[in-house]
Specification:
Elements: H1 4-13, H2 19-30, H3 47-60, H4 64-89, H5 92-104, H6 106-111, H7 118-137, H8 141-155, H9 162-180, H10 183-213, H11 215-227, H12 239-254, H13 265-286, H14 288-306, H15 321-336, H16 342-367, H17 375-384, E1 391-394, H18 396-402, E2 416-418, E3 433-438, H19 446-453, E4 457-464, E5 467-473, E6 483-484
Parallel strand pairs: 1-2, 1-3, 4-6
Antiparallel strand pairs: 3-5, 4-5
Helix pairs in contact: 1-4, 1-16, 2-18, 3-4, 4-5, 4-7, 5-15, 5-16, 7-8, 7-9, 8-10, 9-10, 9-14, 13-14, 13-15, 15-16
């Protein structure tokens, strides 16, 4: 399957952990297992995902691939689950098109190779929706009930937004059973719902409630997501509030869907929007129950955002890309099934416009994996130019990522110094000190560099994507060389 190739290429490439990953991975690696349920203050993830990642690191060693293995496997699983859902929901043309978008999605590929739970969110959403579709299309009620109960109860510990999926799917199944007055299915669903509620109550009391009571964690959430406009105005009471919906819709096509381009952003978003809404209408008309199963969880998440219970923003709603691509696939398939010559031409044109950018990006990832925060390349440069008596100095942030990279290098442990309360004092008198730094913007490291240059001579610098490594002589000052690649 084509979608597995760029995901696997990225996994094999094993780029260094970037800051967000490094912070979470540091907690997973160094905290006792029992403390993984407690608030971290600077990051947050479901306990099941944390334990799964810890198990992977314990089994396969402290390295980037082991830390990213759960996300990678979830990304591959999501491809299969998307196909299973699409085949029960869409015509063949729509299945192929929806799967093409899902397989080549920039964000889905990215988060299949990050120490983050978002690809697992997507896989579990698709699993529960698929089980909901099986509920409608088979007669083995008790078997489906067991699968739904187990998948939902366990899945809640691996994915925070799965609660929205369970609420949406449970509501659709329950209302259908009530309308049909099917007492047997009602009894089964009451049992399933009870298991879900019990699991969520335990998880909420052990994990979510302590995090909500932790001021550091909540400040992080409020400062970042509130500033980003991740919470729906509810109820909307002004023109500015209504504008939020338009801005979120425009942003949505870029991230998480990835259907945007710097060259033709408006055209792509217009075509994608038309396909999305046409597909939603077509799916609601032809397969109402399936439509409700895949769309209602998004509505529940949106309401939770309005109550400021969950941020509706980019990576936290990556899982909603699955229902969006299902609708887009359906919308693009509709013109292809028309008998006239005009409608198929419109459909083919729209397909070409929408698929060229994500397909090109995914293909490029096979040849050229993602490059950002290239701490590994900086460390490789330092090792290639290492001399007797050299020292490697790491700030705490870089050291978190270095924990997962150092097995690939031969730096003597005694020559690696991690910054502490003493600052740069331990470096005095050393003639050659390598300092690797990584960042989102070069300006972020400038205050640190200014401080270093007050005490040392810069002898060399090598720059990559989002990272640099400097060689300093802590016995004086002078200008040095600069190498960029």
């Amino acid at each position: 399957m084509f979608g597995a190739i760029p995901r696997t290429t990225e996994f094999i490439h094993a780029r260094s952990l970037w800051p967000d990953e490094a912070i979470l991975a540091h907690h997973i690696l160094h905290r006792p297992i029992g403390e993984l349920l407690q608030p971290f203050g600077d990051s947050m993830a479901p306990p099941g995902y944390l334990l799964l990642t810890r198990a992977s690191i314990d089994v396969f060693g402290v390295n980037e691939r082991a830390a990213r293995l759960p996300a990678y496997l979830a990304g591959l699983s999501a491809l299969l689950l998307f196909y299973l859902v699409a085949r029960r929901t869409l015509p063949l043309e729509g299945t192929v098109l929806g799967l093409l978008f899902f397989a080549t999605s920039k964000q889905l590929i990215l988060y299949s190779n990050e120490v983050r739970p978002y690809s697992l969110d997507t896989a579990l959403f698709l699993l529960v929706v698929w089980l909901g579709l099986c509920w409608f299309q088979t007669r083995s009620d008790w078997k489906n009930a067991i699968w739904l109960a187990v998948a939902g109860a366990l899945g809640l510990w691996f994915s925070f937004p799965l609660v929205f999926t369970l609420a949406g799917v449970g509501l659709v199944l329950g209302v259908d059973a009530l309308i049909r007055r099917d007492t047997r299915r009602i009894r089964h669903l009451v049992t399933v719902g009870g298991v879900w509620i019990l699991s969520f109550a335990v998880m909420y009391s052990l994990v979510i409630l302590p995090a909500r009571n932790d001021q550091t964690t909540m400040n992080l959430v409020n400062d970042y997501y509130a500033y980003a406009g991740a919470f729906m105005p509810f109820p909307p009471s002004s023109l500015h509030d209504l504008k939020w919906f338009w801005l979120v819709l425009v942003r949505y096509f870029d991230n998480p869907l990835g259907l945007a381009s710097d060259r033709i952003p408006i055209l792509l978003q217009m075509v994608a929007g038309a396909a999305l809404f046409a597909g939603a209408i077509g799916l609601a008309w032809t397969k109402r129950k399936a439509f409700l199963l895949i769309v209602l969880p998004v509505g529940v998440a949106l309401m939770a955002s309005g109550l400021r219970l969950y941020p509706f923003y980019e990576r936290t709603i990556l899982w909603t890309s699955a229902p969006a691509f299902l609708c887009i696939g359906c919308g693009l398939a509709l013109p292809l099934k028309r008998l006239s010559h005009v409608w198929p031409m419109i459909g083919v044109t729209a397909i070409l416009v929408l698929t060229v950018v994500p397909t090109f990006r995914a293909t490029r990832r096979i040849v050229e994996p993602t490059r950002h925060h290239e701490l590994g390349r900086m460390l490789a440069y330092a090792q290639d130019h290492w001399q007797q008596g050299d020292v490697l100095f790491l700030r705490p942030m870089e050291n978190m990522a270095f924990d997962f990279s150092k097995a690939r290098f031969d730096f003597p442990p005694g020559d690696c110094i991690v910054e502490t309360g003493n600052g740069l004092t331990p470096l005095k008198g050393h003639a050659r000190v390598w300092i690797p730094l990584y960042y989102d913007l070069p300006s972020q490291i400038q205050p640190f560099l200014d401080k270093v240059k007050e005490q040392a001579k810069q002898k060399d610098v090598y720059r990559g994507a989002g990272a640099s490594v400097y060689l300093f002589d802590f016995r004086g000052k002078s200008a040095g060389l600069s190498r960029e690649n």
